[in-house]
Design a protein that fits this description.
Blueprint lengths: L30 E6 L4 H10 L7 E6 L9 H8 L4 E2 L12 E3 L5 E4 L4 E4 L11 H12 L3 E5 L8 H9 L3 E5 L8 H9 L4 E3 L4 H9 L12 H6 L6 E6 L6 E7 L2 E6 L4 E3 H35 L3 H27 L20
Parallel strand pairs: 1-2, 1-7, 2-4, 3-4, 7-8, 8-9
Antiparallel strand pairs: 5-6, 10-11, 11-12, 12-13
Amino acid sequence: MKPSAGAAPRPSGQAARPAGAHASGMAQHDVIVIGASAGGVELLLDLAGELPEDLSASLFIVIHTAPGFLSSLPELLEKRGPLPAVHPVHGAEVLPGRIYVAPPDNHLLVRHGYVEVVRGPRENGQRPAVDPLFRSASWAYGSRVIGVVLSGYLDCGTAGMMSVKARGGLAVVQDPATAVAPDMPRSVMARVAVDHVVKPAELPGMLVRLTQQPATPAAAAPTAKLDVLEGRRKGGPAEVSCPSCHGVLTEVEVGGFSHYRCHVGHAFSLESLVGEQNEDVERALWSAVRSLEEGAALSQRIGRSQGRDMQRRFLDKEQDLLAQADLIRRILLRGRPEIEEREEPQVPAEEGHQ
């Protein structure tokens, strides 16, 4: 595949990196993709400090970061270990012994021999997201990929790891008992046949050993359902709209894992979809508070300029609107409206039961 429009030109005569070869003549596991969120930075720094200078694989990292965040993770990784680390530019060549970190607010995609850095649709509410990295690497390098999911909340990385495994790659997760946020590795373990569950101290040695093993081809071609999960085909219609753009969502279920995608490309697991819908509802409720308070202010202004009868009507409307706004505000701030405590009515005692 050639770089898409806008990609940095590849130097003249430079070809895609040839497959790494094992002593047996088979390709090696020479592409390592790592996804992490809360609690992942320190793990990555420790990993960089233990990797050898002559590592035969390329490392690609996505860690969830907020838009506008100025990430210094590549510099920190370089200080900890011997491997150069960068926020790559679009179209940068893939080289062994390098660490490529997704820039904030951009997805990092792996193509055969180069990377793409794009501001594509958010997945699971994240950009960068783990799933696009894992998915693209599995498309480009198949069984040569080692997927690694570390500490993080929710389940970003599960769908991507399904792609890695379907194409013969290896699945490695951090032992959830050692994770600051165990959700991401637990989700992968619940839905994917994981090859290795490791403690942080074991991860560097494990990855080095795996890169020295031959990569075997996938046993079977990906299923039609997996194609839907990856966005290569459309799924069945879902009864909910996309919380990001309000477009139509399609749905697919693979091995008990439900996944949703709109025609724009926003993608969600069931868990992340619920979270995004909650955010959408909260935005709508705050908008309602604003509209009600503006209506109350307008009613007050109109009421002041009217006769006594009309003035009373508009002042009553102002109070009704403010009461509705206050009710919604209390629900948002406390999670439920306050219920005034009322005294229980006194029931007269029956004769003979004083």
